[in-house]
């Protein structure tokens, strides 16, 4: 199984043979956990009720905002990773921000490069909850198959929680694949269960990145488990550092591909930011 390392997305794309697993639609309940099934017009319902009162702006969202990161995989420098907001628009009926670039680097855990994967990525803030969302996506693989990934989303940060407090998003990933060439075998639909658990590790801390000190900073640990019937569990563990009035200044983590018994490590450090 080949895992694609997209910073911040952890395992947004999971390739099984030639299949891409999409995240199935889900609702957010009043506890902030996600449950499978809910949708509006075929799209996932992902925003839910507002979180607690925000303690500040730890992910500034405005058209033209751009964050550029020094990026490396397993200690080897890659091209800069860029996160840039193009404009504001309603996504599933909620004011959201569309990204023209959201960490375009895509490297698999076996070391190969897959090229850019075009996604409609959104962020939004509801109370003190910061959501990340991806709209439904279609991918054509060499003219042989068409893979459809439905919309998904999760809460990346709850800025009002105290150190040690946590939240969990759970959802099911379902992939549908259409074979475009006659005489090729059909590809069955697959389901992947995902458990995304986040915990506040630090608050009001000072973090230095590329010679610049940022404060106050909230450090979040995000641990994801991927469960596919008949295969061993894979996982990802990331640490995200959010600075007040700046946004994400650093991310570091690892992805364990149980199928290939490979662990890959990712590091991104802010080197430039433009805020409007």
Automatic annotation (TrEMBL):
Q: Does the keyword Signal apply?
A: yes
Q: What does UniProt list as this organism's lineage?
A: Bacteria, Pseudomonadati, Bacteroidota, Flavobacteriia, Flavobacteriales
What start and end residues bound the annotated signal peptide?
1-19
Annotated protein name in UniProt: Lipoprotein
Keyword set, alphabetical order: Signal
- Give the species this sequence originates from: Olleya marilimosa
Q: Which domain of life is it from?
A: Bacteria
